[in-house]
Amino acid sequence: MQYQKETKILTISLILTVGIVIFGYKSGQKLTNLMANNPQLSSGNTQGDRISLGETILVNNDINNEKKTGVKAFGNGNFAAAITQLEASIKVNRNNPETLIYLNNAKALSIGKTWEIAVSVPIGSNLNVAQEILRGVAQAQDELNRTGGINGRRLVVAIANDDNNPEIAKNIAAEFVKDTDILAVVGHNASDVSAAAAQIYQDKLVMISPTSFAKSLSEIATQASQGNYIFRTVPSVDFVANTLSDYMIKTAHKSKVAICSDSQAVDNMSFSNEVTTAIYSDGGKSINISCDFSERNFNPRAVVDRAIKAGADSLILAPHVDRINKAIELAQANKGQLALFSSPTLYTSQTLEYGQANVMNMVLAVPWHPAAISRNYFTTNAANLWGGQVNWRTATAYDATQVIITGLKQGNISRSGLQKVFSNPEFTANGATGKIEFLPTGDRNGAAILIKVQPSIQSLNGYEFVPLSQSGL
């Protein structure tokens, strides 16, 4: 009897051990195995695999030993050790959203009841932008999971690095579609990347872009055969362009406008086209100076000279997100001669850090600013979580995640179920940018706001973005 009892105990222990190992392997390695069968998803550099729940470090800056150890434990399915090490890593660097996402994933998987979503960002090509988006997703996940999740199920987030490359994004989208555990995707960043991936997601998996403005996404939505699956939490490019044009012509009295856009950035080409139409509608004139940030031999000094010679009194900057540096070089060459205006792309700390006095008084049309909504809980929570102010991309990524969370809470938990919820004209969600509603095209039903670069003694850069209503002008 004693022998049979010991045998029974050993058998149960073996079953439990095998179960834990299998569960850990499935949770921590399933996406890695998918990538092994698709070489195009390999980054080909030190970033390793392109998709991770927590078993691979994708963000390679500011790595500490605690994070390395935690990620290794995660990959081995040892979530208890992963939690301990990742918590220690956050104490060393609390401003790393990848670490917080991996920590929450480890906690959720250790419990075993989860809902899974994914986010795709350009880690390899624009780390600042990628981190801004990840902070929004991480904050929404953290707030939800700290309160017990949805009906006891915590949210798990898979992170992907698409390098803002349309072909890589399409491959990642295909892997997300294959992984039936993933219920929705936050992404992608640049509009040309989102448009490429949207062709894969449409009719299969909801995609909510927090940063893509281009009208091409709306056009994809209108072609959907089984209901639109493509949404975004930024205002339509029409709203952004009209807001900026109205201010330029009617308030700033700048009526001869030269536009510098980027032929390789579909979102800023959309913006350029829409703002040109709006300028003429408002009584102004667009000065054609042939300015393209994607040109190999882009010459900012020559651009400014051509604009002034053509009679322009102002200059609109609309670069690709990965060519912000060229727009800053153009502002430096301008030296305050022409009034500067911008698409939302330049609403980033990089603009202030490197633009300095050359971008002072530049006016931008953007989706959000931390001071634009009074008593905004998101702004306060973000400052407490990350140790400082966050960017509009963080706010709209937070909103994209909140939209998905709101949909999951309504109970129709499936890919097609979420699509039906978001397509309902009565659907609303509350987020960092206020009330979120979608038009039939999947566009955000909302307006842009205007901000201005002003000197600041409180900012490390010496300058800050201030809502136009608070700039004294």
From TrEMBL:
Cross-referenced Pfam families: Peripla_BP_6
Gene3D superfamilies given in the database record: 3.40.50.2300
Transmembrane region(s): 7-25
Signal peptide interval: none
UniProt key word Lipid metabolism: no
Keywords of this entry: Membrane, Signal, Transmembrane, Transmembrane helix
InterPro entries: BCAA_transport, Leu-bd, Peripla_BP_I
Residue ranges annotated for the Leucine-binding protein domain, each copy included: 128-441
Coiled coil: none
Family: Belongs to the leucine-binding protein family.
Name by which UniProt lists this protein: ABC transporter substrate-binding protein
